[in-house]
């Protein structure tokens, strides 16, 4: 018999999509039965009280978590999101309900052995509930009490060889698309870069030293499967410099209908026979493709590497061989100044282990932003306040037409004094000699 | 409940402490066929909704079955995922950037058994545990947030609306009939944790009333200058108020300048803002992050307010379903929702969807607002 009546939440058990309510109830039952005979370190009925407090929120239309909560582990300034219920007497099982962020492996590959070991720790010391995964990438362990935090940290570092993720004004947990592990479009090894950068900057991740949060994300190509351009202050997106590789026989196989366009992504509807001209040539944003009925050619100098033709004919067109990445900076959610996507800063950078060229850009940006960024100002906002020119200067990038969508249309232009013959120190009496008052 | 020590000694907290070890090396977790062919993939195909095959230059193949997941999940559920991985996949699995789960096998003969096993598993309430889908031009999982399950600043729930929306669009999780993929994301407040500002369809929790001010606690709990600096419209200022015979430092808010973003509450616990009947959701459409054909786009607000209707948010799910159907019926192949709306013009988008255009949808935030008005005589009647 459930501890709290949950008539509203019960209605979220029907329907085809996996029900989080059914799953939480299954966990509550499992804890009540306790088949392994565990000495649960937080209240056995924690998941039931979570359903209870959620049902109360469904009745009130308001959250029942108190503001904030500052907890953690010694040595670190972040990694744990504290949380306390505002009705602790009604729902003692979630009076403390802190979240622990654990750093996930690149590409989120796991073995069952690892996940089971993690579940064993969390079963004993937490609610048994998780988020797989947080939107930044972390494994999120949802709900435990303050005295368990050090115990959990001890177990994950000593027994799982796994560290906490980031929170607060610091480098947050980096994340990557699966890249070379299972994608033929990957222009560099995103998994290796994510692993390398996370290890290189452990101190910046665990001990807040920044004006505000800072995120890295690594996409293998412009398709953006980890959405780096929208969800990270420092976005690395793979690309190539030479020509798209064309297999003319395979192009013919597409035209003949042997190969399905876009690998079959539209097979749920009859879109007619594949029309190479309509579906590829005419949709190329820079009109770089020609098809004479027998041969497909791409004008490499006009291609903006949008991926459309490759996505549509993956068996005929391949990314080039001279590979690297673009670096874009400044993406953020709306608060305060408005949402930003990242803006192009380095058009092409080498992206080979140990990724020194990329680290150099990061460190130049941090040196500047840590000094100049205002309290709680994201990099994107610092760029708006102090200008893209400044960011280019500190990263040693000469200005280039690729840095803009279009040149400015206002004439309010700053010059450096040294650019102007004679400088800015002028004598009005000299001027008056030529121009009487 | 007896305390069980992990080995940690609270009397000597820094003794034996391990720090800065980072995540586990992903190479420890790669299935053998992936480890062997990493960086040497030739092409891929989507065999059917939810099932992919990647073919390596060596000729090796890896078959992937993608299944939906609620993101918020129990250790019991994770253990069931492990059991399936042990049974069919040599103990390997992965999660996607949209929080689906992928099971991989290296031989086609193992595929049918895996799929049948996944499709057969249901929760006690009847919902699928592992629905197969989420590939190609369909609707995949919804990137979402904490809601009333864990956060203190939400204006709506996350897990509940997501379940309600996914039930409504479920057929399109298991089909690929859209002109292009439709990404849905949900955030329970304007912090927009996640991807709503860059999704085909974004749902965001909003408030419609200024914060209350807990004057007695303001200068006790908050660093007032931070609250002042937190306001995008400069509606917050410091002030002194009398409580009984005491004069305290506190905060004043210009209600007519406040647009209820809640950021001052994020900074100051004495400024609670949530409100059962005031709060609700808005719908944005037309964002994308890929660079395919057009450049990445922000999503734009097309419905300024929908009430919270627990537990199944019927007005919200109905509107989303309707927008998706009108898009599917009108857009061209490969055309994302935002590209379609840009091509036909937003006045046409409102005409076709029948959504009401209200004054709330006209941008009025600082200088850039001007660039969203129409400096042209080109429009459709
Ligand atoms: C009991 C105390 C508090 C708890 C448990 C708590 C908890 C949290 C959590 C979990 C976050 C999210 C962090 C993340 O995204 O990684 C957060 C963010 C934040 N909290 Fe608190 N908080 C508390 C007190 C405060 C106080 C006293 C202030 C200010 C006076 C404050 C201001 C903020 C701000 C500004 C953020 C946004 C941080 C960011 O965007 O990185 N919190 N808080
Ligand atoms: C107030 C408390 C807050 C809570 C409880 C909270 C919670 C979370 C959580 C759990 C995640 C996923 C983290 C992970 O995977 O490790 C996240 C991501 C995110 N948060 Fe928050 N957050 C808070 C405040 C904020 C604020 C103030 C902002 C911005 C102004 C913000 C913007 C974001 C964004 C944009 C992401 C997604 C980043 C990505 O896609 O990687 N959050 N938040
Ligand atoms: C026991 C007392 C306190 C502790 C342990 C503490 C600890 C913390 C921690 C860990 C954070 C980072 C939270 C996050 O973003 O994840 C934080 C943020 C903050 N705290 Fe405190 N705090 C305390 C008291 C206060 C008080 C009394 C104030 C204001 C009067 C305050 C103002 C802030 C502010 C404004 C932030 C956000 C700073 C930022 O993100 O730029 N804190 N605090
Ligand atoms: C001392 C200041 C200015 C003087 C003496 C001046 C003078 C003139 C004159 C003599 C003309 C030609 C008028 C005609 O064809 O009959 C003209 C045209 C124009 N002025 Fe100015 N102007 C001044 C400032 C400005 C400013 C501040 C602006 C804009 C911000 C401006 C924008 C224009 C434009 C756009 C035209 C062309 C209008 C058209 O297309 O016919 N002028 N100005
Ligand atoms: S971003 Fe590109 S390389 Fe990475 S998984 Fe997506 S398509 Fe593949
Ligand atoms: S990648 Fe894009 S821009 Fe380049 S040829 Fe193909 S469709 Fe055109
Ligand atoms: S979107 Fe807002 S309410 Fe939701 S988890 Fe993020 S900060 Fe909390
Ligand atoms: S809710 Fe937002 S707009 Fe209103 S006073 Fe607070 S910070 Fe300013």
UniProtKB/TrEMBL annotation, chain A:
Origin: domain of life: Bacteria
GO biological process assignments: sulfate assimilation
InterPro entries noted in UniProt: 4Fe4S_Fe-S-bd, DsrA, Nit/Sulf_reduc_fer-like_dom_sf, NO2/SO3_Rdtase_4Fe4S_dom, NO2/SO3_Rdtase_4Fe4S_prot, NO2/SO3_Rdtase_4Fe4S_sf
Gene Ontology cellular component list: sulfite reductase complex (NADPH)
Organism: Desulfovibrio psychrotolerans
Keywords: 4Fe-4S, Iron, Iron-sulfur, Metal-binding
Family annotation (NCBIfam families): dsrA (TIGR02064)
Name of the protein: Sulfite reductase, dissimilatory-type subunit alpha
GO molecular-function term, one example from the UniProt record: sulfite reductase activity
From TrEMBL, chain B:
Lineage top rank: taxon: Bacteria
Molecular function terms from GO: 4 iron, 4 sulfur cluster binding; dissimilatory sulfite reductase (NADH) activity; electron transfer activity; heme binding; metal ion binding; sulfite reductase (ferredoxin) activity; sulfite reductase activity
Domain 4Fe-4S ferredoxin-type: 249-276
Full protein name: Sulfite reductase, dissimilatory-type subunit beta
Listed cofactors: [4Fe-4S] cluster; siroheme
Phylogenetic placement of the source organism: Bacteria, Pseudomonadati, Thermodesulfobacteriota, Desulfovibrionia, Desulfovibrionales
PROSITE patterns recorded: 4FE4S_FER_1 (PS00198), 4FE4S_FER_2 (PS51379)
Pfam families according to UniProt: NIR_SIR (PF01077), NIR_SIR_ferr (PF03460)
A single BP term in Gene Ontology: sulfate assimilation
A GO cellular component annotation in the UniProt record: sulfite reductase complex (NADPH)
Keyword 4Fe-4S: yes
Keywords: 4Fe-4S, Iron, Iron-sulfur, Metal-binding, Oxidoreductase
NCBIfam families with a match to the protein in the record: dsrB
Keyword Nucleotide-binding in record: no
Transmembrane segments: none
UniProt organism field: Desulfovibrio psychrotolerans
